[in-house]
Amino acid sequence: MEIRRDVFQAIADPTRRAILSLVAIQAMTPGAIAENFNSSRQTISKHIQILNECELLHQIQNGREIYYHLNPEKMKEIDKFIEPFRKMWDDRFNKLESIMKNYKK
Amino acid sequence: MEKKTKIHAEDDRLDLVITREFDLPVELLFKAHTESEIVAQWMGTKVLKLESKKYGGWEYETSDPNGNVVFKANGVFHDFVPNEKIVRTFEMDNVNFAPQLEFLQFEKLTDDTSKLTMQIIYKSIEHRMTQLKLPFAQGLNMAHNRLEEIVTKLK
């Protein structure tokens, strides 16, 4: 089963944060991204895949090459200060919903 | 991944907006905000007073497992229209924050679904920032305390 990924899991990793800061400046091919790291290309490609699954990156096909861009819309969701606040309300509302379902006829 | 509860907080504004859609008829969503026993359950607090009417007051109090009061808040209902809206103030005791003003709008989407829009207005941008950061800070504290516990056990 595929683990559901969220953006907070994605940015928890320092390598993935570094990838995001690279593609924030310009769109890059996976090869060009990997050149910036000491890790194997395979490792970097796994990181890219995770970022892509969370929609933090989007791919643009240019001829035979795939370029990765930063998805600024998704980046906006990342506000590490706001997220726990959102989560607090989300937890409360989830509880509210499950309690009130018992009142349904 | 679509998030159910959304926070809309624009820079340089005094307010923020929380929205959430529920798999509940609007009547039940509203009821969950008006009855002490129900509020106590989902807010995770003791409800000392909840006068669900215009000009009525409310008071919440939360204690830690040792019985120490860790949170106390109160306010007044300025408007109260069943299944439509609640306007209320929210003020925490024993802290230096000004009261905040909350507008809750209840909307029927279908017979079985509804939407809550909660706009909270703060006195200053700093106040809004503090409130937003509070759960973040608490999370850090909890992690820190757990770490301390583990370290203490190792000694």
From TrEMBL, chain A:
Residues covered by the HTH arsR-type domain: 1-90
Tell me the superkingdom of the source: Bacteria
Q: Which CDD domains match?
A: HTH_ARSR
Alphabetical list of Gene3D superfamilies matching this protein:
Winged helix-like DNA-binding domain superfamily/Winged helix DNA-binding domain (1.10.10.10)
Task: Name the keywords, alphabetized.
Answer: DNA-binding, Transcription, Transcription regulation
One short Pfam name that applies is HTH_20
State the Gene Ontology terms under molecular function: DNA binding; DNA-binding transcription factor activity
Matches recorded under InterPro entries: ArsR-like_HTH (IPR011991), HTH_ArsR_DNA-bd_dom (IPR001845), HTH_MetalResp_TranReg (IPR051081), WH-like_DNA-bd_sf (IPR036388), WH_DNA-bd_sf (IPR036390)
Write the protein's name: Regulatory protein ArsR
Taxonomic lineage of the native organism: Bacteria, Pseudomonadati, Bacteroidota, Flavobacteriia, Flavobacteriales
TrEMBL record, chain B:
Give all residue intervals belonging to the Activator of Hsp90 ATPase homologue 1/2-like C-terminal domain. Answer: 23-151
The record ties this protein, via InterPro entries, to:
ASHA1/2-like_C, START-like_dom_sf
The domain of life for this entry's organism is: Bacteria
| Pfam families tied to this protein | AHSA1
Q: Which family does it belong to?
A: Belongs to the AHA1 family.
Q: What is this protein called?
A: Uncharacterized conserved protein YndB, AHSA1/START domain
